[in-house]
Specification:
Blueprint (H helix, E strand, L loop, with lengths): L1 E4 L5 E5 L2 E4 L2 E4 L4 H8 L7 E7 L4 E7 L7 E7 L1 E7 L11 E7 L5 E4 L4 E6 L4 E7 L8 E3 L22 H4 L4 H6 L6 H14 L1
């Protein structure tokens, strides 16, 4: 597999090598050792999630308090999504910026999203099925959101997504500026310190 760092530090695109024949396709969609070489520490798996979304569904922008926050390894096993990684770490050189990766059942890419980063996606097909490997369990009191429609962040949703569908929770989420003013956001320094702690464990 090929792993490259995205324009947002501590996020990576993973492109697997696929082996096809008349029976179908085989691939390795996750290798802890290959990822560890790039990230600096292992992704200790604590929970696995799956979502199935209608075309146009937007999930996010979501993040969790750091530490421990939640690192994610995300892939689309059916259909297609556009996955967004948003830097919400106050003090980061790319604060407020984002990058995106098309995840689908053709190229079968994945993304790794480090703790402290914001995550969002929009479904480009019906029944877009997304699987997530995460390193900490869901903790409602530590989970937060930012509006995916925040004009300051300015996510670009492709035309093929059609009409956007948001949950009431995501619709009511604050802007990046409001979240920062409420001290909800992680900081760049706290994130770096947390990554260093994880690196030291290996």
């Amino acid at each position: 597999m090929q792993i490259r760092e995205l324009s947002i530090p501590d996020s990576f695109e993973i492109t697997p090598k696929q082996f096809g024949d008349d029976r179908g396709v085989f691939l390795e969609w996750y290798r802890f050792d290959k990822l560890e070489e790039k990230v600096g520490h292992r992704l200790d798996l604590a929970q696995a999630n799956t979502s199935v979304s209608k075309r146009g569904s937007v999930r996010g922008i979501h993040f969790a308090d750091i530490p421990p926050s939640q690192a994610k390894y995300v892939t689309a096993v059916h259909g297609a999504i556009l996955d967004y990684i948003i830097d919400i770490r106050v003090g980061s050189p790319t604060y407020g910026q984002w990058d995106s990766v098309l995840l689908d059942d053709s190229d079968r890419r994945a993304v790794y999203i480090a703790e402290g980063l914001g995550h969002c996606f929009v479904a480009l097909t019906d029944n877009a099925t997304v699987s997530y490997l995460v390193n900490s369990t869901f903790s409602p009191g530590r989970e937060h959101g930012i509006s995916p429609l925040d004009e300051e962040i300015a996510l670009v949703f492709p035309p093929e997504a059609g009409e956007l569908l948001l949950s009431p929770k995501d619709t009511a989420a604050p802007t990046l500026a409001a979240a920062a003013a409420s001290n909800l956001l992680p900081t760049w320094d706290a994130a770096r310190a947390h990554y260093a702690t994880l690196n030291d464990r290996n």
